[in-house]
Amino acid sequence: MKILVINSGSSSLKYTLFEMAHEKVLFSGTVDRIGLSGTTHEFRVGLNGEDETRLVDVTDHGEALDEILSTLTNGPLDSLDELPAVAHRVGHGGKYKEAVPVNSDVVREIRRMTPMIPLHHPAMIKEIEECQIRMPDALHVAVFDTSFHRTIPDYAAIYGLPYRYFAERGYRKTGFHGHSHQYVSGKVSEFMQQNIRDLKIISCHLGNGASVTAIDGGRSVDTTLGMTAVEGLIMGTRSGDVDPGLMPIIMKEDSLSPDQTIDMLYRESGLLGISGLSRDMREVEAAALKGNDRATLALSAFCHKARRSIGSMLMVLGGCDALIFTGGIGNNSSTVRFKILEGTAKLGFVMDDAKNNGQERTTPESPVLDISHPESGIRIFVVRTFEELMMARECLNVLKIVREQKQ
Ligand code: ADP
């Protein structure tokens, strides 16, 4: 049984083709810079076969899909009929708490949630619609970044606004990066050979988007991202927490419309906004190393926010057994990991500096790296995330349910 997972960004389409019997990746790739100059299609057999990259003439997500599907049918697939189901990553599920087959109501709900995650949803909706046209016989399943956080209790999810926003409009913390937090916490429980029901875990997904989640017995109980994809940590171009009282003041002072304000919070803030250089942590770190003051400030602010959030989650959980770093930054930056945990031995975090800085890296085959010192009260792990696998599993479950219902 093969399942295709598609993850669309505003100018990219990532895809992974799975053989579900052994949860094996057959083929994966990314079409990047869609609608911009120099659009590329990078792909490989499996997850870490040799990369092949070609320049492609693709101006929108529909054409990007044509490129991907023809690559698949000229490679690992004989025909698209071999795909019974396609998983589509969707940022915000709104009223949908779990993965569902796509129908017009689901698309309407995803569209209704667009203001909550404006950089991603328009491309995701377009991608789903284009896919349905090209694969009319496959089951299309929407898998939501928010699902894993449906267990967050009301008292942690509610905002201190008038109650009607919670009760009537459903405005509450919904969180994101659910597939990543769920995957890495599961992997760590396997690694520790302990049932996840017996573990308290703090998971830090640090990438272009970033969030810290408290996981108690395998259930998300709190997370830093909110109803929108802005709350919490400083991110690549998103602000994270800002004093809410400051926003209307800035809007008035600079005569910003709501849309301009959204643009500022989502595209011009975060690492990019503070450093004035880049949203890319590698570039920020390199500039900080050369003594650039704003890059140093951006790096320190990023780490401080993450550190503060870990402290909050430690109290939420009443202690924890394991701390996880994942996402592009969490998985790769020993500097960020060091700065976040520096001087926290009294709280139970003692990193093994040699392991943190060492040559050993996570790989797809060996995604968990233990970087804790033997004296650390809390185990510290670096984990290479694999969100697509969780999406493929959810999609397969929905496919099974749909097939059972048909019988
Ligand atoms: P996304 O949230 O878009 O999936 P990723 O999880 O791929 O993003 O993370 C992208 C971030 O990871 C970028 O800020 C990038 O600079 C950072 N990153 C990747 N490799 C390294 C590295 N070796 N050192 C520091 N940061 C890194």
Features:
eight-stranded mixed β-sheet; Nucleotidyltransferase, domain 5; alpha/beta; 2 domains; 407 residues; globular; six-stranded mixed β-sheet; binds adenosine-5'-diphosphate; single chain; 20% strand
Q: What do you see in this structure?
A:
The protein has 15 helices and 14 strands. With 407 residues, it is of the alpha/beta class. It folds into two domains: 2-144, ATPase, nucleotide binding domain (Nucleotidyltransferase, domain 5), CATH 3.30.420; 193-387, Nucleotidyltransferase, domain 5 (2-Layer Sandwich). The longest helix has 25 residues, at 293-317. The radius of gyration is 21 Å and the shape is globular. The two termini are 18 Å apart. The model has no long low-confidence stretch (mean pLDDT 96). Adenosine-5'-diphosphate is lined by residues 207-209, 236, 280-282, 285, 327-329, 332-333.
In short:
The chain is α/β, with parallel strands linked by helices and 407 residues long. Helices cover 39% and strands 20% of the residues. The chain has helices spanning 61-73, 104-112, 121-134, 154-157, 163-167, 178-192, 246-253, 258-267, 270-275, 281-289, 293-317, 327-332, 334-341, 353-357, 387-406; strands at residues 2-8, 12-19, 24-32, 40-45, 52-55, 85-90, 100-101, 139-144, 200-206, 210-216, 219-223, 322-326, 368-370, 379-383.
